[in-house]
Amino acid sequence: xxxxxxxxxxxxxxxxxxxxxxxxxxxxxxxxxxxxxxxxxxxxxxxxxxxxxxxxxxxxxxxxxxxxxxxxxxxxxxxxxxxxxxxxxxxxxxxxxxxxxxxxxxxxxxxxxxxxxxxxxxxxxxxxxxxxxxxxxxxxxxxxxxxxxxxxxxxxxxxxxxxxxxxxxxxxxxxxxxxxxxxxxxxxxxxxxxxxxxxxxxxxxxxxxxxxxxxxxxxxxxxxxxxx
Length: 228
Prior knowledge:
Blueprint: H1 2-16, H2 34-47, E1 50-59, E2 64-73, E3 76-83, E4 86-93, E5 96-101, H3 103-108, H4 113-119, E6 123-125, H5 131-137, H6 142-149, E7 157-158, E8 162-164, E9 167-174, E10 177-182, E11 188-193, E12 198-204, E13 219-220
């Protein structure tokens, strides 16, 4: 089961990671250097109380269709990740993280029938000591998710200004794709990847409800079942 979860996590992460490197004027942040813009984008994401991230893509080598829909509200988060017909629901509340998966996921991961019967449609508590499940929980960890998404590994250059999703944007480009930032303040608006398949990830900042933790009778702790 751990191998399957780790593979799924890596597929989704690779589909949307921006490979890039990571002083203003009256024209917002447009005059900042590429490296300063990326720093500004990271700070903006960290400072926002509410961030929603939605996108679809295809991981070319693996032939996987990927869809992400995550909402971060203060210290909570919830949403879903779909990979080739399998869906994981993710939740973070009260400093704990959970996931819920359909039967297809557990069958493909090789989970024993008795474990699947216990889990049913309940939330699975993610044990931070289990590396594979901890990585899955990173999707609803605001710091880890966005740090990984904008991880600096090679040089980025500024591209042309463009209106994206109704917002005047400045572009950061590299061989992997383009990150569009709000020209006025540097908030990420859209991330478009092209080198390893295709994908578009959009960011919005409207207020959303905070996620609530499930009740104890809706949760299964796999570490107590010996199934991790």
